[in-house]
């Protein structure tokens, strides 16, 4: 078992780098064809991670949608769904969120040790709460996931989570879908926030694929030069 899983970041954004607008309704940046592509990527992973803010705002299920893909996983001896993972700083998570109530696979919550007792009591048997530093140390979290057999982790945001993985040098692949419009609202969330990124003009990412999906484009970058991804 490697010291950490292979980490794949997946995101759809506008041409100007936003992953949503500032309205209460979730903005759909993708298309049915791309949603199906993402479902196929999920089916090739062991676990899927979103931040606690995404759990609260979007209430995602994070399940594999295709019954065919689910059956193929079971035929290979894998669970039909991925292990779900989230990260929280303060423990503000609703046990009735669909993250916890859908799917049969394990749900893991990584939190500061001080937040673990109350959060574990609130979530009960719906999730396992793991102390991983204050703030949560992503390298510690990944090592724990590796010890649980997670070899490939898909990260679906939000922006703060993507930024943490990127600035820490803990991402191996970035799958970025660009939608053919602008948001232009500085109060809307962006794909990545400020930070010191290893991927600089002197050390750029490697473009492994550029694929047209209707009017969208998928850009698949490899971030590390160590053969991962």
From TrEMBL:
Domain of life of the source: Bacteria
UniProt pathway: Cofactor biosynthesis; riboflavin biosynthesis
SUPFAM superfamilies the UniProt entry points to: Dihydrofolate reductase-like
Keywords: NADP, Oxidoreductase
Keyword set includes NADP: yes
Bacterial bifunctional deaminase-reductase C-terminal domain sequence ranges: 5-217
PANTHER family registered for this protein in UniProt: 2,5-DIAMINO-6-RIBOSYLAMINO-4(3H)-PYRIMIDINONE 5'-PHOSPHATE REDUCTASE, DIHYDROFOLATE REDUCTASE FAMILY PROTEIN (AFU_ORTHOLOGUE AFUA_8G06820)
Protein name: RibD family protein
